[in-house]
Each structure stands twice: as C-alpha cells, then as structure tokens.
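Give me the fold.
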Amino acid sequence: MKKIIQYLVLFLLMVCAMGFTVAAQSASLGASSPKTITGVVVSAFDKEPLKGVYVRLKGTNIGVATDIDGHFNIEAQLGDTLSVKVLDCDEIEVAVDAQQLRISLYNFVSGCCYGENLPQGVFGTVCNEDEKALQGATVTALPSGNCDITNSIGYFNITKIEDGDKSLRIEHPAYKTIQGRIDGNCYEIWLERNNVTGVVLSAEDGEPVIGARICAKGTKNGTASDFDGKFSISVTDGTVLTVSYPGLKPQEIVADSRQPMKVVLENDENDPFTGLICCPQPISVIRMDSLDFVLPESEFLLAQQHIDILKGDYYKLKNIEICRAKYLLASEIDKRKNNISIYGTPAMALSGYARQYIGFKHNGHRLVFINLTDKNIWSDGFDDFDKHLKTLIIRDAPQLNVRAIIDLDTEGFVFFSLGY
C-alpha cells in the first residue's frame, strides 16, 4: 500500500511538472514580440521638438538619440519603460503604453552642480542651442519677481528666493521665453532661438526685394532678404522691426513668429537712397536721368556676339536696380579715378558719360552690364542722340568706353574696364 501511494504521488508530481511546462510555453508563445516604438520629444514650454535627447530602454543598453525634429525609433514592447535623459543630469521614466509616444520635457535641468560652499539661492548658466553662453538673459523667480541678468559667460545668481517661489522664467530678446518649476538650486538652461520669418515684396510689381535690410529697431540685430525676398531674424514677438531698401520707403512692422510676415515696400521717388537704417551710412542720391538707357533683349543678344563675358539669360531690370548699379559704378569710378585714365586723360565723373544698361542672370545671380560712352562725342556726331543710345554701341575704338558688370546680389564687380 505504501508503494502504491508513493507511485501516485510521483505520478501527480509528473503531471504538475508537465502542466507547468506547458503553461510556461503557452505564456512564452503568447508574449508580445518587440515592436518598433516611435515617438517625439518636445519642450513642455513651447511644444517645439528637442534634438539630442537620449531615449533608452530601461534595464538595457538599447538606446537612441532624438533627431533634429525630436523624433526617435526604438525596439520595445508595450508595458516596457523608457528612460529619457536630458543632458548629463535629470532622467525621467516613461511607460510604453502606445506604439507612438509624445514626451514633454523641460528645457532646463537642475541639480547639476556639486561641491562645497556653493552660492546661496538659485544659480546656474544660460546658453543657446549651439551651447554658446547667452549674456543679457533675465532669470526671474516667480511669483516674488526676484531676478538676475546673465553676465558674459551666461552665469546668473538669484541670491534671494522666497518661500512661495515655485518657478523660474527666462527671457532674452532673441530667444523664446521659457518657464519651469524650481526643484533645486543649480540650473543649466537652454534657450531656443525665436525666429521671425517673412518676405519683402515690391509694391511696383509684386516681385521679391532682394537684399532688403530687416533690423530690430534701435539695435544692430539685423539681416537681409534673400534671392526670393525671404528673411529670418531672431527676435521676440512684439519687437519693432524696420524694413528698408535704397529707393523704397522704409516700413516698421511688429514681429510675430506665429506665421510668416509679408512686407510690401513702395517706391520713394523723392529720396531713393536715404541710407540703411541698421547701420546708417549716408548714400548719395543717384536717380535715372536723360543719359540712362535701358536696352532690350535684342541688344543683349547682339552684345553677346561681341563680348564673351556676357553669359546668361536676359533679365528685365527694375528702375531701383538700375539706380543701385549706377550708384555702385559711380563709387567705383571715384575710387579708381587717380589710377586710371584714357589716353593719358583722367577718367571723367559718371555724369560725363551716356549709360546703357542690360540686365541678365547667370548662376542664379542678377547681373547688370553697363556700357558708358563720352556723351560729348556722341551728341556732337548725331542729330538724334537718343536714337543711337537706345541701341548698343559696338565701337571701333573700345578704349574710349567704360564697361562694367555688377552683381546686384553681392554688390560686387564681376568685370570693370575703363578703356582697354
């Protein structure tokens, strides 16, 4: 009887073991296989993406860093935990509860300073996304309002923190304002540029204004519009921007980063070159007059047959572009007048020549070909002066001509010849 009982116990144990094995195998087969979890890490303050944040599967060495748009992909299962590390300090944990995650982080971290005899209050550094220290950022403890302004190495120290202070606000004229909780006494704060974008157009024809100056009023913080008239400048919303271009009426606008801004500048017939607003430098007023002749495409094609350097496609010049080219040429002749001459005779001022203009584009740049001839020679030789100056003059004696090609986009000279 005793042996029968022993056999029964042994049999039951074997059955239990087999059941446990089957159950374990079933559980294993039913477990979720790893999936690609996608996500984005954004700022808790302004919802902008955060790049370079390290996302790691907790308890493993599997990890990735967010890209420039704050996105990441990682192999994980639902129910896993991700460790999200900000710089070298704080690390938060996020449960994987969906295949697509959105993680919000603060732009600054605390508790990064260690050692004895640390300053009292709240202190730290403020830098931009390029890790350069920001001077002039205002760091304010709220709600008390106690504050400090960062120095040349981006350092601040608010020595007095009230019991009720719960957050810090960080402001800088060219960066986005952020605010976050006070949970320590030492901080590394990172600010993102506050870019205001827009386009500058001409009221005359709706075309983009290339090289318009856009400046924060009263400062040297400025930029210029590109080939499409577009611009981007780092300022806070509400900043007054001055938009100017020689020959057009300057305009003031209020910066708004929520959407691209559109600026339309009208012609300023009375004073086309009043100077640049950002860094005022008086510019002589130069307008088109009776000696200026803008030549058609047929003359450009003729000129190409005789002048090898005229490579490109015809471009119809605007009055403001002609005036600008004329100013640049006048400045160049004046600069060179002591070093250049025609047959031993010093070069004349621009007013001594009749001017012919042809516009063309080459490698995406707007170019102006200018042909100058002695107005006295031609006016004495022809009864109909205007008729002959409306066509390109290919002279038998080119040494009596001044010729230049000006790049309007760089305001530089591609070619200059005062005689041959």
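The longest helix spans residues 2-30.
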